[in-house]
Specification:
The complex is a heterodimer of chains A (261) and B (75). Chain A is built from eight helices and two strands. Chain A has 261 residues and is mainly alpha-helical. Chain A has one domain (2-259). Chain B is mainly α and 75 residues long. Chain B is elongated and about 60 Å long. In chain B, 91% of the residues lie in helices and 0% in strands. In chain B, helix 1 packs antiparallel against helix 3 (47-74). The chains are: A mainly alpha (261), B mainly alpha (75). The A-B interface holds A 11, 77, 80-81, 182, 185-186, 189-190, 192-193, 241, 244-245, 248-249, 252 and B 48, 51-52, 54-55, 58-59, 62-63, 65-66, 69, 73. Chain B: Belongs to the ATPase C chain family.
Chain lengths: 261, 75
């Protein structure tokens, strides 16, 4: 019995399943999946959060302070990293930060006890990769728009000695081209790893109580459960940090495009 | 050696990378705290750089995790 109950698949939570029927478009089947559903949920929650805080009261209430904390945080980060021109990109980076943060946090909600299984949208590279590619596309468009072909001087840092250029330029080129990959991968893996860890620990809890030696299994279960609470708190921290790191790196990359270096 | 066994050993070896990244991340935050306590006034201004260093160190650990996952589930 204990051997049978050991089959708790930690990867099952990442399965994208269609909800209801779809339609065909250009030879592809377009389906409304649980991933899309949780993106919609995140967008609606974000909309409500922002709507409730944009009252423009002279003496802000608690909700308005919460929203203004986020907006002030991002806009100060943009001016610090890019300078006065960073204000133009603040709306994009702010939307990016808030969407990622809400997706991360909604995936952490313990709704499983009510039978609804939250889906962490950011645990798929299909989503984070697209977000990273959008950031990268903005960097390319802004860079070539503002500097033309002079944008390629990004690959030759200021003050590089002439003999070093053939060595430095390819390295800089590779480090530039790998950016969208590393940006998307970081968020996706951080969320996936955390959720796999939580599921593995919850497997320990369940299997411990189902074990044949009940007293020994219970000790394992209780210890694993205490560890799970700690890891959950750590995951909430990671959810915030990863959203911040994504926004921070995007702002740094845009800085490269705006100001070169 | 059995191919399945080699896969599992490879995934286990990839975990060394995750541990190394833990050292790196700890080093980033430790050094930041050390210098922040020497000059607390300058600490807030360096928070952006702190997280850049954290992101760079963490990425390599996450890559090690990806290698382990690919060995376990994909190959």
């Amino acid at each position: 019995m204990a051997a049978e109950s050991g089959k708790i698949d930690p990867m099952h939570q990442f399965e994208v399943t269609p909800l209801g029927g779809g339609f065909h478009l250009g030879g592809h089947e377009i389906l409304f999946t649980n991933s899309a559903l949780w993106m919609v949920v995140a967008a609606i929650t974000l909309g409500i959060f922002m709507w409730g805080g944009m009252r423009r009261q002279l003496v802000p209430g608690r909700w308005q302070v919460a929203v203004e904390g986020f907006t002030g945080f991002i806009s100060s980060m943009m001016t610090q990293n890019i300078g006065s021109e960073g204000r133009k990109f603040t709306p994009y980076v702010f939307s990016l930060f808030m969407f990622i943060l809400f997706c991360n946090l909604l995936g952490m909600l313990p709704l499983g006890v009510f039978g609804i299984h939250p889906f962490t949208v950011t645990s798929h590279i299909a989503i984070t990769g697209v977000l990273a590619l959008v950031s990268f596309a903005i960097v390319l468009v802004v860079g070539f728009w503002r500097h033309g072909l002079h944008f390629f001087s990004l690959f030759v840092p200021h003050g590089t000695p002439l003999p070093m250029i053939p060595i430095i330029a390819p390295i800089e080129f590779v480090s530039f081209m790998v950016r969208p990959f590393s940006l998307g991968l970081r968020l996706f893996v951080a969320m996936t790893a955390g959720h796999v860890l939580l599921k593995v620990l919850s497997g320990f809890v369940i299997n411990g109580f189902n074990a044949e030696t009940v007293w020994l299994g219970s000790i394992v279960s209780v210890l694993s459960f205490i560890l799970m609470i700690g890891i959950s708190a750590l995951e909430l921290l990671v959810a915030g940090i990863q959203a911040y790191v994504f926004a921070l790196l995007t702002s740094l990359y845009i800085n490269d495009a705006v100001n070169l270096h | 050696m059995d191919a399945e066994a080699a896969k599992l050993i490879g995934a286990g070896l990839a975990a060394i990378g995750a541990g190394m990244a833990a050292i790196g991340v700890g080093n980033v935050f430790g050094s930041f705290l050390e210098s922040a306590l020497r000059n607390p006034a300058a600490a807030d201004g360096q928070q952006g750089r702190l997280f850049i260093g954290f992101a760079a160190a963490e990425l390599l650990g996450l890559l090690a995790f990806v290698v382990a996952m690919i060995l376990l589930f994909v190959v």
